């Protein structure tokens, strides 16, 4: 028997954020609009979960076999995931959705899944863009999505040490609201902020837009509670320790292969009273990266420090629209800027004076707070507008990497060249999203008309070309994680011995291999 349901969870929000008319006009001139991709009903096969397994799971946690619930956990939110939900390519649909409400229930679910040999995909916000939540069976007869949405509490707060313990299924906005009641913030704001969870951030070594100031997610983790098929594991008793290798770092970035993270102890900071955001423009990508490197190496980065290349700046200014964009263009030309590259600075705790003082000697044009605030207010529009771009027949996707400063120009050229080679004449935009003393990340956004015949292969080929170009120069992922999509490139980065180490750990935590098959390695 098959159930047919219409797709709802494929969209970022229940309402589509339309593209403004000037954005549509720009798209149609620059790349031409493609054929709209309509939403079609998707067929959901009957659950393969045996009656025995269903009853055993039902005895320990809430479980749903509802077709809509299962479809809602069929993959993440990459471009390919989104178009698969619109009928292009095959979706992997879990046989059941299990919703435990406590770490103890998670432990019991794992016990039952080992007994019945069922694959388990830990599911946080489902925002993975690398196939991390694909419901792969790994040779098992059935697979469940283990949705952590009901683990959404603030377990404890220690204001003296500034540590909060949050359950793994807490979404980022809920975490911020819970912490705000105590005057604190986590300061972790990835672009997927509205939907992603604390457990997902820890499982993928996430980086937020303000990570120059607040640190990457792994820098915030003070302790973890993990349920594994081999039992519970708790780590984190001091701010630093010389008691052997840092085992906590094995959990962070383990992408659900070793266990299910159920609680995370996090360093929190006082909520800033008056965050200040500003925009400046530098002349050219080379000058821009030199500025950011200088700031990073002088410990003068703003909490948010983001440099767009010429193409991304052009798009940002074009999308500002109308008379304002025209005047800005004129002003920049008057100031002698030939290749405008936009820099956004945001100060949430760090000193504006320190950053701006360190820019001395670099040529930049200040655009003031209006530009910074406009970026801050629009920073979640990207995910919301992906549905509208699909509706307009556009293939819109992102990918990211990082390398050392000396190799950054080569990495930038290689990825752009690969994407252009694979896609014809796409718009390829790039920004430095995170900067460090020794290097930086590069975040690419691609826009191209969707191939009507075979949109899946169109993007798969482009992504493969970009990954080949990255391999050997930079990391295959700076913050999106490995998932299914980057798994073929992991060995080149960590070596065959590295993969063996991960396999050995996996067999210790998960001897029968139920957890998240087909991901990471
Ligand atoms: C539009 C958009 C923008 C994005 N921007 C950013 C960004 O700025 N920075 C960034 O870092 N990432 C970004 N991402 C990627 C994604 O949001 C992150 O990887 C995020 O950390 C995933 O969190 P989640 O709760 O949605 O996890 P999910 O997508 O549900 O899961 C991610 C992986 O972690 C595993 N997992 C989830 N929860 C647990 C748990 N409790 N225990 C064990 N394993 C678990 C899953 O099995 C899966 O392999 C973006 C994604 C989208 C769609």
From TrEMBL:
Which superkingdom is the protein from? Bacteria
Q: Which cofactor does it need?
A: FAD
Residues at which FAD binds? 122-128, 255-261
Q: Does the keyword Transferase apply?
A: no
Which UniProt keyword terms apply here? FAD, Flavoprotein
PROSITE patterns registered for this protein in UniProt: FAD_PCMH
Residues forming the catalytic site? 443
Classification via Pfam families: FAD-oxidase_C, FAD_binding_4
The record lists substrate as bound by 386
Q: Which GO terms describe its molecular function?
A: alkylglycerone-phosphate synthase activity; FAD binding
Where along the sequence does the record put site: Important for enzyme activity?
Answer: 306
FAD-binding PCMH-type domain: which residues? 90-271
Example of a GO biological process term: lipid biosynthetic process
Please report which protein family the annotation says this sequence is part of: Belongs to the FAD-binding oxidoreductase/transferase type 4 family.
Name of the protein this chain belongs to: FAD-binding oxidoreductase
Origin organism is Lentzea tibetensis
């Amino acid at each position: 028997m098959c159930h047919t349901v219409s797709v709802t969870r494929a969209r970022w929000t229940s309402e589509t954020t339309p593209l403004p008319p000037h954005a549509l006009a720009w798209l149609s001139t620059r790349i031409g609009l493609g054929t709209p991709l309509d939403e079609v009903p998707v067929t959901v096969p009957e659950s393969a979960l045996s009656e025995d397994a269903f009853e055993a799971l039902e005895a320990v946690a809430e479980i749903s076999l509802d077709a809509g619930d299962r479809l809602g956990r069929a993959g993440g939110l990459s471009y390919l995931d989104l178009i698969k939900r619109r009928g292009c390519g095959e979706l992997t649909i879990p046989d059941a959705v299990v919703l435990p409400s406590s770490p103890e229930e998670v432990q019991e679910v794992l016990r039952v899944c080992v007994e019945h040999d069922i694959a388990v995909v830990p599911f946080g916000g489902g925002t993975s863009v690398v196939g991390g939540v694909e419901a792969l069976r790994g040779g098992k007869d059935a697979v469940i999505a283990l949705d952590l949405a009901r683990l959404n509490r603030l377990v404890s707060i220690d204001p003296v040490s500034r540590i909060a313990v949050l359950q793994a299924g807490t979404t980022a906005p809920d975490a911020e609201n819970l912490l705000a009641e105590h005057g604190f913030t986590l300061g972790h704001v990835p672009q997927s902020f509205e939907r992603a969870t604390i457990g997902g951030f820890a499982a993928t070594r996430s980086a937020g837009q303000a990570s120059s100031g607040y640190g990457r997610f792994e820098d915030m983790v003070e302790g973890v509670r993990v349920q594994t098929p081999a039992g519970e594991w708790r780590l984190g008793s001091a701010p630093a320790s010389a008691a052997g290798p840092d085992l906590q770092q094995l959990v962070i970035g383990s992408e659900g292969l070793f266990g299910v993270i159920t609680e995370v102890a996090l360093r929190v900071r006082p909520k800033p009273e008056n965050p200040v955001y500003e925009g400046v423009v530098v002349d050219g990508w080379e000058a821009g990266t030199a500025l950011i490197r200088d700031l990073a190496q002088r410990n003068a980065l703003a909490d948010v420090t983001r440099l767009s290349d010429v193409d991304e700046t052009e798009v940002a200014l074009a999308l500002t629209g109308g008379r304002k964009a025209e005047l800005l263009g004129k002003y920049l030309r008057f100031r002698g800027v030939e290749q405008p590259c936009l820099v956004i600075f945001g100060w949430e705790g760090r000193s504006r004076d320190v950053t701006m003082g360190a820019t001395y000697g670099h040529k930049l044009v200040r655009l003031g707070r209006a530009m910074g605030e406009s970026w801050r207010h629009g920073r979640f529009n990207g995910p919301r507008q992906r549905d509208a771009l699909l509706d307009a027949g556009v293939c819109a996707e992102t990918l990211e990497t990082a390398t050392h400063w000396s190799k950054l120009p080569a990495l930038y050229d290689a990825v752009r060249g690969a994407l252009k080679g694979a896609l014809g004449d796409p718009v390829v935009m790039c920004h430095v999203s995170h900067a460090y003393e020794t290097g930086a990340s590069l975040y690419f956004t691609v826009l191209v008309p969707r191939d009507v015949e075979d949109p899946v292969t169109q993007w798969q080929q482009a992504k493969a070309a970009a990954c080949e170009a990255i391999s050997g120069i930079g990391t295959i992922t700076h913050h999106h994680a490995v998932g299914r999509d980057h798994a073929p490139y992991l060995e080149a980065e960590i070596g065959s011995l590295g993969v063996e180490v991960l396999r050995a750990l996996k067999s210790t935590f998960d001897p029968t291999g139920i957890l998240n098959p087909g991901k990471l390695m």
